[in-house]
Queue: 4 jobs
Job 1
Amino acid sequence: MATTPAAPERVRRAYPAPVRDGDDAFVPLAARIGAVAARHAAEHDRDATFVAPAYRAMREHGYLRLPVPAELGGLGASLRQVCYAQAELGRHDGATALAVSMHLHSTLTQAFLHERGAPGAGQVLRRIASSDLVIATSGGSDWLWPDTVATVQDDGSLRVSGRKVFCSQAPEAGAVSTCAVLGRPGPGAEVAHFSVPLPSPGVRLEETWDTLGMRGTASHDLVLDDVRVPAEAIVARRPWGEFGDVLTTAEVHFAPVVAATYLGIAAQARDAALTRARTRAQPRTLTPATTSAATTSAATGTTASATTTTGTGTSPATSTAATSPAATSPAATSPAVAATGAASRAEGGGVSAAEGGAASRAGDGGASQAGSAASQTAAPPHGSRPATVSPTAQRVAGLMDARLRTAWWSLTGALDDLGPGYACTPDTLATVMIAKREAVLAAVEVVGLAMDLAGGGSYFRRSPLERACRDVRAGTFHPLTPEATLLYAGKLAFGDPGVTE
């Protein structure tokens, strides 16, 4: 199999690409915020500090009011448009995109409720538009079974005590959307949902967020100590252990926004890896001796000895990447693709242009194809050899694109299934959660493949691919987790009403 000359232009940018008018209406805005976020991303990741500069840019340019209806002072972005914007923001900094996704999905939920006449939703949306109110949530902490307790007072207010973990963007939030169980947690208990202004008497922030990835989200703990919640702040009630309308609605808007965020991280990792692979595939000046040796070896089907540069010097290495049919098998381009080109994988190496070179191509078709391989790859004497990208690298790139495109199609297909006048039901919840599952698993796989393609340099802390590798792992922890999603969808398939996980 012949190598392919590397075109001089930049690599083609990964998906998502807009397919409908207005899909990318807010992508330039997200890119503007992302440019600010990217300048500080490494610092916030290193120090586990909040992405405050990006939030200042969001306030300045209106990103926090992205889904607020235009008539209420917002930008009027649809759920689909928010997903495109978040995919763009995720390209620049995963932590910034994930942090604001918590605010955006809450805002989308309020817009959904407002459109259907829910009291109070319009007031919240106006506050977001007029004062850039940031809403934090504690859904990842509470889920269906909160252990925060509330006692009902004579006037209908609540006294709430408990600890909320995973409160992303807590340092910036002006309110937290949360819940508490009335009385003793357990079957038969009732859960009240409400919001608490930040700061409030009895609420304190404990900086506990020191994690593997997404270190800039500042998802610290909020501790509530006998906090008073007025009766009018209670927006919904549900049975303990069940979704109820309130959680179902929130999660239907959470899943697509978060899915798009992780796909954006993976898409940028793909682009960075392809750029790295193209950079390595630069023309190399050949001497008459090496030109003759390469041509002779390709014509005879023998294995040539090459000189490989390593981090400590040069050493002879034998290129054998394409001498076996296994070199082009799916196993050879799995996340363990490093085995196909170990000789060329010095620091910063990766799946290199040397793999599958002219010297070892006879194994693809025997001596009958050797002359053709030589004619395609032999360099002119005393000249420069064209830059080439190996078939192995091409296949890794193709696999990344296949996973990214399929995952994005899953997400946009799920949104199409919802339709313009969607209801938030168990079936709707399963639809978007299946799409989220596909997105987060694809993101993890694509970033791993990108590191394989980029090589050992991606293992350094200074590499954005190293940070992307850590950041995308967070995607598998958001409820519903990938495994819980399958179980939930399977329950519905067998006729379960889907009121609980």
Job 2
Amino acid sequence: MKVNIKSCLSDNCVDSSSRNTQRQLTLDISAIADRQEQSLPLNLCLILDCSGSMTNEPLETVKQAAISIIEKLHPGDRLSIIAFNHKAKAIVTNQPVGDIIHIKQQINLLKADGGTSIDEGLKLGIKEISAGKRNAVSHIFLLTDGENEHGDNKRCLKLARLASEYKITINTLGFGENWNQDVLEQIADSATGALAYIEQPKKAITEFEQLFTRLQSVGLTDARLTLELMPGVRLAELKPIAQVSPETIELTVVPDGNYFTVRLGDIMTDRERTILINLYIGQLSPGQHQIAAIQVAYDAPAAGKENIHSDIIPIEVKASTHYQPETNLQVKKSVLTLAKYRQTQIAEAKLQSGDTAGAVTMLQTAAKTALQLGDDAGATVLQQSATRLQVGEELSEGEKKKTRLASKTIIKA
């Protein structure tokens, strides 16, 4: 298993007379499997909300979803299950998948009661999954339907960052309409995972299985991208590096002189992680110039190897005295994807501050951006939210969550 990196600039040429030129760089990063390589062993931890609000159908459908995932695990995989309300308990401690019948019995014994403390569930889940993470793909599925009323959201985010440092990915699933979309998104983003929305109980199995399919496609883990900038080249000052596929995430950049590192997490075989970097290039003399270099470090659990480094890939531009713009359409699509997300973020901020008219304008802009991307379903959600606000209605909690997800991903019709 090795990493595959494809780089592309928004325009490979610059005007040699320009003192400052902006360019966007995209990196499509995926894993390539050798023919003889088998799927990696999985180390899965389910952290399930069993608070009182999950009574009856919600908890029963979550039980079914959890069992459907467990039935897909192989003998070499490991599993742990945490149930939490205002306290947390490991109903299945980290262990190789063996006695499926006993595990199902433990799941079916779960009852809904008490309040909600997400950080207690996360803390215990990280402890359990850490026991089996060697040479495996370690993922947490965290499901909750409510606010963290008995917990501490800041502690949740600290735990998410800790999980990332431990090479553990956290995927979050919001159930119903009352969960905190900001907190669950930040947990998933911090631990390089995905955010899912279970709007109706009947969708629980589908959302669990989609995340599990993604987990099965992981080929490399703990990937970190390092960008070296040449003299006269700089990053944009605000949020210069973001992931735009498979979902949009503002990435944290760690600078070290002219080197900049971001954590990517797992690299998959069936889909690319697309990274968008915003650069500014100083004036260049006519000719070919290297402006940057990139390298990805990663772990290969199948080979039992850590901190493998890819080849260094140079990024070059041609400075010309007779410059003619040639926009790369694929990079433009990545720029629009990030724009859709940021436009919606601005709309949400304006709505929270009481500027409804400003929120409407930005949501309409985001809807138009989605149409440019060919994201018709996303455009519909964003425009519907704008229209409701425009006629004086408030967005329901469910509509707010749909709007957020429409900005962050491409909605499948």
Job 3
Amino acid sequence: MDRIGYPLVTVSALKAGNWLRVAFSGVCGFPFRHTGLEVALNDQRQSVKQRIATAVNQLPAPVLDDLEGSASYRLFVLRNVLEETLIELEGNERHGTISRIDD
């Protein structure tokens, strides 16, 4: 039987009013949605980079580290997907030009 290849990290997001809701898979050992993480991502008083850093600190379990992707690579992918998600759902005019998050 052939093995099905799934994305390393998946982020599903939607905007409900002015509130961003986000669910994740491939980050921890289980799919999840986390209210504290959403609060961090929705904190408009902080920069996108600060919001993402705060959100990543709210992860409910250790980041997966296996043959398909190291924990550091998964975090790299997660940070960049979150940046793209925030820019797309909040509108580019709010953020101007943002450099890629690579650390």
Job 4
Amino acid sequence: MSGTHGDGNGERDGDEAGDEARDGEGGAGGVAGGGAEEGGGAGVPGLTDEDRAVLGFAARGWPSPGEKERAIRERLGMSPVRYYQYLNALLDDPRALAHDPVTVNRLRRLRQAHRDRTR
């Protein structure tokens, strides 16, 4: 998943963040269940630990796409494609918005900007 770097402080521009949210429209793990699965730990009820881990991962910047993809595999235990599908589904989940509104709203804006550019 290639993208361009932002201003060097770990932020990505719209191309990379568009990658974050564009791959896949389908459901994802704890998100697809529509709230049937209660996650353990702190946070919004209904979000699984995996949901919170994916949101936390999406909140940070990466120095290069290769490092990010490697970290997705190592830290989250999923392929990059699956991560982006999962994240895309989370962006439409109101529980994710309640858990981390800053990250979810930022990624929603970037996803929409990407969709607007590709239409």
